[in-house]
Amino acid sequence: MENKLKEYFRDKIVLVTGGTGSIGSELVRNILDYPVRQLRIFSRDEHKQFMLKQELSSHPNKDLLSFLIGDIRDRDRVFLSMEGVNLVFNAAAMKHVPICEYNPFEAVKTNVLGTQNLVDAARNHDVDKFIHVSTDKAAMPINVMGATKLLAEKIAVTAEHYKGAKKTLFSAVRFGNVFGSRGSVVPIFLEQIKKSGPLTLTDREMTRFMMSIPQAVELLLKATLLSKGEELFILKMPVMRIEDLAKAMIEIFAPKYGNKASAVRIEITGRRNGEKIYEVLLTEDEGEVVWENEEMLCVSKKPLEGFSPSKIKSYRSDKCEIMDYKSVLEYLKKAVNV
Fold it and tell me: Is 137 a catalytic residue?
């Protein structure tokens, strides 16, 4: 796989939108190790760009980096940033459920209109491939974030239908909860543990699909190699109760901040607006055209090399095997190198 990726990225100009976020920045770190001609990092946060540039200042390929301040809502800036680009990863989004819930049209402008700007620019510039980053909340959405991400996903994947003679291949990757990302509950729990608690949990029965940031980026890179256009890739991943995650974090981190684990309590606060008890990665309708290999599912009307018809016809966190507490604890220790 590494050799295939090395050859695929050779001499390519790559654009990563949302390139200073949790997923985008890890993707940048990985791609910078390949023989690209240029790697463009597009984001609207000046401070995060400065910090990432400082972090990568000693990398042997640092001169291949180009930092672009911009917002995917800005159509002119998006079109300018994509001049000469071969490959686009769209990791830019508004992703916090409560913030999107109270600022719905702001979410529309970023997640929907911003994605349309990128798709139009990719088609206009005849980019080779466009890989869109989506989320489990796009499947059967009940909140603004999920609804806008579903529209973004559809805009990206169905761009294959109206690209005309353009060569661009459009695909998407649907993630579960990305462990430790800025959109996950992990940083929130960690801050609450530092303050001796309580950890705020909305519902004891809440379950989530979990994947690490490296797993998320690995899926993106594999999807890039596999993509033939109009696919939706989904990583097979474990499911855990968020209460078990909270308890495991208390057990590991409370002593590090001078507290006894038994002294840090969990407070049940009730579900927030737009919050689900369980998540869906694959709907029953999508299950009619799904393929699989050992690592992932692929929703596609066309068979894909290395994939066979899937026995999985629906993929939701409350219907999957749930990790026991000991497994969650070991998963967490591995994720944080404890």
Answer: yes
